[in-house]
Design a protein that fits this description.
Blueprint lengths: L5 E4 L7 H11 L7 E3 L2 E4 L5 H16 L5 E2 L4 E4 L5 E5 L3 E4 L5 H9 L4 E2 L3 E7 L4 H5 L1 H8 L4 E6 L4 E9 L9 E9 L3 E2 L8 E2 L7
Parallel strand pairs: 5-8, 9-10
Antiparallel strand pairs: 1-3, 2-3, 4-7, 5-6, 7-9, 10-11, 11-12, 13-14
C-alpha cells in the first residue's frame, strides 16, 4: 500500500454525511469510494494485488458453493432510529439476502447510491494498511447493523476470523460486538456457519 486512509470528522447536524462523501468523490483526481464509519468520513487506501486477488478468490469460493448472491462493489447504508445516517460502507465482498427489489432501488435512489443494510446476510473484509479500521470501527459497525456474519482476513496479524452473533447492548453503536469469534491462522481453512462453505485462506500466504 502506498497511502494511509484519509479520515475526517463529519458534522451530521449540518448535512447528511452521504453529501460529504459525494463531495470527496467529486474532488478526487482518481476514482475513490469513501465510507462513513463511526462519525468519520474514511477514504480507504488503494488496495494492492494480493488484497484484490484474495477478495475475489473468497467471492469465487462462495459462488462455486452455490451462493449466487455473493458480490463486490455495492455500498450499503444503515440508519439511527430517527432516520439519520449511522454508517455507509462498501465491504470487500458480501452475500446478500436478495437481489435488489424495486423498493431497494428506490431506497438507493433516495440515499444517493447506497442500498439498505438489511439486504446483507454476510460481509467480508481483507485488511490493508488501514487494518485498524476493519478490526475496530467496521467490526463494531457491522455488529451494530445486525449483520449476522462478518468474515475478516487480517493480513497484519496473519489470522482469519468468522464473527457471528452480533450484539448491541445499548443505544451506542460503538459498543456493539460479535458474541463469537472463530479464529484460525492465515492459510488454514476457516469454518463458517451453515449453510456457508469453509473458506480456503491459503491464497493470502503469498502476501
Amino acid at each position: 500500500m502506498s497511502a494511509e486512509p484519509i479520515m475526517e470528522p463529519v458534522m451530521t447536524q449540518q448535512q447528511d454525511p452521504i453529501d460529504l462523501l459525494i463531495a470527496f468523490e467529486e474532488a478526487s483526481a482518481t476514482p475513490i469510494r469513501p465510507e462513513y464509519i463511526e462519525g468519520m468520513a474514511i477514504v480507504p487506501p488503494t488496495p494492492d494485488d494480493n488484497h484484490n486477488d484474495g477478495a475475489y478468490e473468497l467471492s469465487f469460493q462462495f459462488r462455486t458453493a452455490g451462493f449466487r448472491l455473493v458480490g463486490i462493489g455495492n455500498g450499503y447504508r444503515t440508519a439511527h432510529k430517527d432516520g439519520r445516517t449511522m454508517a455507509a460502507f462498501v465491504p470487500d465482498f458480501y452475500v446478500r439476502r436478495r437481489r435488489p427489489t424495486e423498493l431497494d432501488e428506490s431506497y438507493r435512489k433516495a440515499h444517493k447510491g447506497w442500498y439498505p443494510v438489511d439486504m446483507l446476510a454476510l460481509v467480508g473484509e481483507v485488511t490493508s494498511t488501514n487494518h485498524e479500521t476493519d478490526t475496530g470501527p467496521k467490526y463494531r459497525t457491522y455488529a451494530a447493523a445486525g449483520i449476522p456474519v462478518y468474515v475478516l482476513i487480517d493480513r497484519h496479524a496473519k489470522t482469519a476470523h468468522c464473527y457471528t452473533g452480533p450484539v448491541l447492548p445499548g443505544e451506542d453503536p460503538t459498543e456493539a460486538y460479535y458474541d463469537t469469534d472463530t479464529k484460525v491462522d492465515l492459510g488454514d481453512p476457516l469454518p463458517l456457519p451453515a449453510p456457508y462453505p469453509t473458506l480456503d485462506t491459503a491464497p493470502f500466504l503469498a502476501d
